[in-house]
Fold:
Amino acid sequence: MRAVGAIRAGDHDVRFPLASGGHRWDDAPVTNLPADDCYAAVVRRDARFDGWFVAAVTSTRIYCRPSCPAITPRREHLQFHPTAAAAQRNGFRACKRCRPDVTPGSPEWAGRHDVVGRAMRLIADGVVERVGVTGLAGQLGYTPRHLNRVLTDAVGAGPLALARAHRATTARTLIETTNLPFVEIAFAAGFGSTRQFNDTIRAVFASSPTDLRTARRARPGERSDGDRLTMRLPARAPGDVAETRQFLQWRALGGAETADSGEYTRTLRLAHGHGWVAVRPEPAGGAGVVATFALEDWRDLSTAVQRVRRLFDLDADPLAIAERLADDPVLAPLVARHPGRRAPGSVDPFETAVRTVIGQQVSVAGARTVASRLVASAGEALRLPHSVLTHVFPNPEAVADAPDAALAMPAARRDTVRRLAAAVASGDLPLDAGAAPEAVRERLLSLRGVGPWTADAIVMRGLGHPDVLLTDDLGVRRAAQALGLDLRDRARVARWAPWRSYAVHHLWASLDDAPSTLTHQKESIDAA
Structure:
């Protein structure tokens, strides 16, 4: 059975299916969008449902986000689609007023780890542009025909249509915020030709590229400065970006990451070259972030954006998470104190896996020191100018071949790091946005030196799984003990599903909120 989340909208409970709970990572069926509940959200212009679905008006052939400020059409004139690609496939174009292409992603796809959720994440990561639909299907273990059928049934559009919608959004961002020639934008966004680029922009936005650039309004927080692009990445409220930045700052690797009181910056290893991104909170207390990207190749823009969204967990549904966890009387005060707490993810699951193994049984500071040495000795020198950042995290081949001096740790753990890197380099252990968590966990446990805690931590952060409870983690155990919480009570912790990863972060954070006798224990939490 799939979990259902509800949000109170006036006198009406709007309900949507959520990611399956526990450790079920199978192909759970998709529940159709409840049209009456969608309409209730549209009537109230409820921004909490932006990204869950789009509302398409049959009389005007325009689709909008639920919070669009335009006059609400009558119910019989509205259709509801789970994705913009589905609306576009049915002949609708994006509203010029509410900009439905600039919304948080759906928590449905962020939290699901069946073939649909995995495919949606890979498409957003630019896999179709790099290897085509055949390559995408092969990565997921399906034939192209079957994958097309599964996605069309689930989200109303196949992989090509979904990739086309992502290309259109990327192209519009570059048109409106840079002065790049249209030919460069077309290929940077992933289009095969300028004709395809022009036709798609006209079909999706009812404007030519020239019209978009001529009429561009400086969208708040978005601008281009030479070879850098600054853009707003939205998220659902509430959310505290400062908490996530603090979590990342404690673990920042010298040369590859840096953080101060207002900004987190890190390097990126992408398909077509290097990059770096600087992330800071939205002004005026928004839940999203403002990100400045510097990339060697603009073809990597969409991929870089998605990886930052995963790192900061910007597609989460904080209200649904808070509602479930607050049902527990022990967790309720923690949730009330930090109702929008995110579960930081990863820009590179392989990097997170290596850092997790390095962090076995050592403090955050110790793990950070060792991993920073690895970056300095085995990482590639950053090919873009930056005043502080110098290297990108090494690829699997470089880690597997790293000398002992680059892996200053006990020999057994050093061998585990090399085995992990070799498995990823050979393709025996796929670690990417579309990896199946259950299969990854099983393969990780088959590697000597990797136990359940390490495997679960990699699944939680590296793959962004929302429902992993690290019961063997020292910090989690100490926090639970301080709160009088028995983690062996299976029935109790099962009720936290499908958001147990967020419970872990609340428990970790409680060590900082506790009396001073507990504050030192944060250094015992591994650098997962």
In short: The chain is about 45% helix and 10% strand. The domain at 224-296 is CATH 3.30.310.20 (TATA-Binding Protein).
